[in-house]
Design a protein that fits this description.
This protein has 135 residues and is an alpha+beta fold. The chain has one helix at residues 9-30; strands at residues 47-54, 57-63, 67-74, 81-89, 95-101, 104-111, 117-123, 126-129. The strands form 2 sheets. It has a 4-stranded antiparallel sheet, with no helix packed on it. A hairpin with a 5-residue loop joins β4 and β5. The longest helix is centred in the first third of the chain and has 22 residues, at 9-30. The relative contact order is 0.17.
Length: 135
């Protein structure tokens, strides 16, 4: 039974497919290719905890209760250039995303419940690094 109405397995599959298509269309409508600037880092969950600026971009850290997330965002998006972001919890291994990107490197996320983290980011040869933060 589905909501008091008898629905076949085929009907449930069709309903699921329709909902998936509507969700995809809605996502493209509200967060389409025109997303820029501060919205570029919206892939991180949590509140903005720290932003460190440098000559060619900024390193943004976001914190939720159990996780910390980081992205490096270029000051002037455009041509592909070398970018990287690294995030390491104290006592853990770093999570790294590096390559040639147009807008941002990351997001990278680490489990950091009751732990300090250190982060670094670079855009086009210029870099920034934090000490142990968010303790």
């Amino acid at each position: 039974m589905f909501g008091g109405i008898g629905v076949t397995a085929r009907g449930r599959r069709l309903l699921g497919a329709l909902l998936a298509v509507l969700l995809a269309v809605g996502t493209l409508t509200f967060a389409g290719p025109g997303v820029r600037g501060a919205d570029a880092a919206s892939a991180c969950v949590g509140r903005a905890a720290k932003t460190v600026t440098f000559a060619t971009g900024e390193l943004r850290l976001y914190r939720s209760r159990q996780y910390v997330c980081a992205v490096t965002v270029a000051k002037n998006p455009g041509a592909r250039r070398a970018m990287s972001v690294s995030l390491q919890p104290r006592g853990g291994r770093p999570a790294v995303d590096s390559g040639r990107f147009t807008r941002q490197a990351g997001p990278v996320t680490v489990h950091a419940l009751n732990r300090c983290v250190r982060a670094s980011g670079s855009v086009a040869g210029r870099s920034v690094s934090t000490g142990w933060v968010l303790c």
